[in-house]
Design brief:
Layout (H helix, E strand, L loop, with lengths): L4 E4 L1 E5 L23 E5 L2 E5 L8 E12 L2 E6 L5 E13 L2 E6 L8 E11 L2 E6 L12 E11 L2 E6 L9 E13 L2 E6 L8 E5 L3 E4 L6 E6 L8 E5 L3 E4 L3 E6 L8 E5 L2 E4 L6 E7 L8 E5 L2 E5 L1 E6 L8 E4 L2 E3 L1
Parallel strand pairs: 1-4, 2-5, 3-5, 4-6, 5-7, 6-8, 7-9, 8-10, 9-11, 10-12, 11-13, 12-14, 13-15, 13-16, 14-17, 15-18, 16-19, 17-20, 18-21, 19-22, 20-23, 21-24, 22-25, 23-26, 24-27, 25-28
């Protein structure tokens, strides 16, 4: 698709290689795909919406490789949650684009699922959100990004909704042995108003890099009401390196509790500079309690120009635990 406008109830885009077939009764089954086929979406707008009909709409794209450039892709839920699923055998590359699920009613926004061997983004937005018309609306959906290698640059991954009932959304970024890198990329899971904040889970079977090169990115859970904010959990089977001015924080401005922050890896190096300090904080500005901060290294733990703090407003502050075989502060 190039320079195109597409609106559909359900839209399935499938690129197949020689000898492959698509079951049109279940086009979302990507298990039999092989590499070699390509779907390119450039300079285009795509909307999948149920238009008020009581059957969920969806947007699904499957191929060997998926390339999205300078495009806007969205589902819109009305009486039923509408999902987006991008699945590639090899790679998905998203540049200068937005891919998100939305709701403008009390119905939950659908989930966003992206899976490939390699996932890369540059200057892009991936997420799920609730529109704001000044009335009670539904929850945002889960965001699940999974690949052997994940490299997100100057991007935003988010779930933002009312989140007052039901299952809370989780933002998950999961990498295999190829590792996970977030460069100038923010990740948020927040409640718009009085609801609860869902969790953020970032994990890798390899290494994790959190790098702030040209901005001040943040990883944030937040809520403004009586319900709790979500936790932030970042874990790697390999090493984890974080550079300032990256900011990791959980906060509540109401009576709910702030979430915990957990970092665990083989070697952990968190480092900033006097001008660009790295921050980990769990705070509440009202009656709620602040969460814990746990940094756990199986081997070495090094902190340099890092600010760690928990602050209770009217409530109690949380504990901070630093653990490693060799700890350097």
């Amino acid at each position: 698709l190039d320079s195109s406008q597409v609106q559909a109830f359900r839209l399935d885009v499938n690129a197949i290689g020689p000898g492959e077939t698509v079951d049109v009764t279940s086009p979302q089954d990507f298990s039999q795909r092989s590499g070699g086929s390509v779907v390119r979406i450039e300079n285009s707008n795509i909307l999948a919406t149920d238009s008020g009909f009581p059957v969920a709409s969806a947007l699904r794209v499957g191929a060997g490789t998926i390339e999205i450039d300078n495009s806007f892709i969205q589902t819109q839920s009305a009486p039923a949650a509408s999902v987006i699923h991008l699945s590639a055998v090899d790679a998905i590359a998203i540049v200068g684009s937005a891919v998100k699920t939305t709701t403008f009613t009390a119905v939950e926004a659908g989930g966003l699922q992206i899976d490939a061997q390699t996932l890369s983004t540059d200057n892009s937005v991936l997420g799920s959100q609730v529109g704001d018309f000044g009335v009670a609306l539904g929850n945002s959906g889960d965001v699940d990004l999974t690949a052997r290698t994940v490299a997100l640059t100057e991007s935003l991954v988010f779930s933002s909704g009312l989140n007052t009932s039901g299952t809370l959304p989780t933002v998950t970024i999961s990498a295999g042995s190829g590792g996970l890198g977030l460069v100038d990329t923010s990740v948020i899971n927040v409640s718009d108003t009085t609801g609860a904040g869902g969790d953020i889970v970032i994990r890798s079977a390899g290494n994790i890099l959190l790098d702030a090169d040209a901005s001040t990115p943040f990883i944030q859970t937040n809520t403004a009401g009586a319900l709790d904010s979500g936790d932030i959990r970042i874990t790697a089977d390999g090493d984890l390196a974080g550079a300032g001015p990256y900011q990791l924080f959980s906060i509540t401005t109401g009576s709910g509790n702030a979430g915990d922050i957990v970092i665990a890896a083989r070697d952990v190096v968190l480092s900033g500079t006097d001008a660009d300090r790295l921050e980990l904080s769990s705070s509440t500005l009202a009656a709620g309690q602040a969460g814990r901060i746990d940094v756990d290294a199986q081997a070495g733990l090094t902190l340099s120009a890092v600010d760690l703090f928990t602050v209770g407003g009217l409530g109690a502050a949380g504990a901070i635990a630093l653990t490693g075989e060799d700890v350097s502060l």
